[in-house]
Amino acid sequence: ITIPTNVKEIKEFAFNRCKNLRKIEISEDSELTSIESGALSYIPITSLNITSKISELKEGWCMNTLKLNQIIISPKNKHFKILNNKMIIGKSDPENENFDVLVFAERNIEEAVIPSNIHHICSYAFSGCRYLKSLIFSENSELSSIGDFAFSSSSISSISIPVHVNKIGEFAFYGCKNLKNFEFFENSELNIIDKKVFSWSSIENITIP
To answer: Chain-centre distance of CA 117, in angstroms?
Structure first.
């Protein structure tokens, strides 16, 4: 499908489960500003172009996009940028210059280093990353929340949750069959472990802070 240039929003679940949809073309002169939750869910697209006027990728926009291995962001886009050639980062406050939200990781990513200034990992950000072997949080991480399904069905085997994380969202590590080691620090600020966070994972022990 080619999105007409005058379309400004792709609404919730617009292309949900279009199982033959392999290519979505968005031209650089597109007026598109927003892709809403579930809009591209369960479709086999392999690449996506984030054009200059797109300012909003709502939580869950990339639900179960298991083959989305390439994101191209227009150099004119002021709201999102590529980190380490494999991750999209964005802003919690559009008026601020700080890119403090990790939005999406290309599904073939093998190693992820999360910068210290990231405050939130969005829902489904690493979901279905079946080649993810290493997840590293930079020293003095400011991460405060992990979204729903953020790492679901990924291949991570261990994780140490940064001190300032206060909430882990629903199903965040659901289906992580290689995940055995899950660590909190003694001075953890964690308040909420939401429902089914560790469902269908392989964790063997956990110490609740």
So the answer is: 16
